[in-house]
């Protein structure tokens, strides 16, 4: 049973079947009906950390354009038709460097219950593709969908969408440790994208996320069940002993599973828009990861170019040194 302080429900979806289903899995202190979720979620100068410790849930309807072109700060893995969608906002985890704290003033969880409308827009987008083209669609940029699966069931629904639409590559990214359902091999176009970080980085900056050992075990099980796996060592966070920590991370990976069975690797250093960084620093005034003296380049806060190159080349070269049969095209750098 999921417990929330309050639940806010938009009036026009209060009778939606998914609203009733989600409510059946929840307990709450109070329930309120509202006209539009932004009246709660969009208020300025809210206390994100207080709200994250005293969670409320907002059930809403997504409207307008529901598929967006991928951000230039996100890796497209060589796909020309790169989109993302947001069926939820905010996360159970509390990563100090998370861009969501720079994007939103509110720490409450939002679930858009009308996922069928997202599916419909995705199908229309697929119909517009030229012969031979595929759509790459990331569905978990604004939350960690796997952590909410027992509440929303959205990962299972996206899996069925991928199964029925082989022209779509659906990526679900996580810092958790999901358990395979057993039929992953039947849905090769569903990409299970794991963000892996050294345990010391997890302890210092990625609060409430799954430990590295659990994430690695989940990767191994997913590969054994035939699932399509992407490993994201992204963002690499600068600390004084970063080379030792990220080298040890890769050593742990190669001891646990055959890296040549991984579809590809995404390698990138921390980067965030300048405007988001200002708000993130207000939310995290004591975080070493957030208060590094970044350089501003084209409106984004980034590590100095020399440091970026060192971190990306070290990590990618270390991975490739363990590959027995693959070439550099399995590494994508941001």
Outline:
The protein is an alpha/beta fold.
Task: Characterize the structure shown.
This protein has 334 residues and is of the alpha/beta class. Helix content is 33%, strand content 24%. The chain has helices at residues 17-23, 38-41, 48-53, 100-103, 115-127, 149-152, 154-164, 199-205, 212-224, 242-256, 274-283, 305-320; strands at residues 2-10, 26-34, 57-60, 68-69, 82-84, 88-89, 94-95, 109-112, 135-138, 168-174, 190-195, 206-207, 228-236, 264-269, 271-273, 295-297, 300-302, 331-333. It has an eight-stranded mixed β-sheet with strand order 4-5-9-10-11-13-14-18. The protein has a five-stranded mixed β-sheet with strand order 2-1-3-8-6. Strands 15-17-16 form a three-stranded antiparallel β-sheet. Strand 16 and strand 17 (300-302) form a beta hairpin. The longest helix is centred in the C-terminal third of the chain and has 16 residues, at 305-320. The two termini are 39 Å apart.
Helical percentage: 25-40%
Mean pLDDT: 95
> Quick one: how many beta strands?
18
Global morphology: globular
User: Helices and strands, in N-to-C order?
Assistant: EHEHHEEEEEHEHEHHEEHEHEHEEHEEHE
Query: Whole-Å distance between the termini?
Result: 39 Å
- From the helix content, strand content and strand pairing, which structural class follows? alpha/beta
- Given as residue ranges, the uncertain stretches (5+ residues, pLDDT < 50) are none
- Give the strand order, joined by hyphens, for the main sheet: 4-5-9-10-11-13-14-18
Largest β sheet strand count, sense and barrel closure? 8 strands, mixed
What percentage of the residues does DSSP assign to strands (E)? 15-25%
Q: How many DSSP H or I helices?
A: 12
């Amino acid at each position: 049973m999921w417990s929330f302080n309050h639940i806010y429900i938009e009036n026009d979806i209060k009778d939606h079947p998914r609203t009733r289903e989600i409510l059946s899995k929840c307990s709450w202190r109070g329930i309120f009906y509202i006209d539009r979720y932004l009246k709660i979620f969009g208020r300025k100068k809210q206390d994100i950390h207080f709200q994250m410790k005293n969670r409320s849930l907002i059930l809403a309807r997504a409207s307008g354009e529901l598929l967006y072109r991928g951000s230039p700060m996100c890796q497209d893995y060589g796909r020309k038709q790169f989109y993302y969608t947001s069926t939820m906002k905010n996360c159970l985890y509390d990563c100090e460097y998370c861009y969501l704290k720079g994007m939103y003033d509110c720490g409450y969880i939002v679930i858009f219950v009308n996922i069928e409308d997202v599916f419909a827009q995705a199908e229309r987008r697929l119909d517009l593709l030229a012969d031979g083209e595929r759509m790459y669609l990331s569905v978990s940029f604004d939350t960690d969908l796997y952590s909410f699966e027992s509440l929303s069931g959205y990962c299972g629904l996206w899996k069925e969408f991928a199964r029925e639409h082989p022209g779509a590559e659906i990526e679900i990214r996580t810092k958790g440790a999901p358990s395979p359902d057993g039929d992953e091999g039947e849905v090769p176009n569903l990409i299970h994208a794991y963000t892996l970080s050294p345990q010391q980085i997890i302890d210092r900056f990625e609060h409430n996320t799954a430990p590295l050992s659990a994430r690695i075990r989940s990767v191994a099980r997913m590969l054994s069940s035939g699932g399509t796996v992407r490993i994201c060592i992204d963002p690499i966070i600068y600390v004084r002993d970063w080379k030792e920590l990220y080298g040890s991370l890769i050593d742990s990976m190669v001891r646990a599973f055959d890296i040549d069975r991984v579809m590809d690797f995404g390698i990138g250093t921390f980067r965030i828009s300048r405007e988001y960084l200002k708000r993130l620093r207000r939310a995290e005034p004591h975080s070493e990861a957030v208060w590094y003296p970044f350089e501003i380049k084209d409106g984004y806060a980034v590590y100095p170019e020399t440091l970026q190159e060192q971190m990306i080349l070290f990590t990618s070269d270390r991975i490739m040194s363990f590959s027995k049969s693959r070439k550099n095209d399995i590494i994508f750098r941001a």
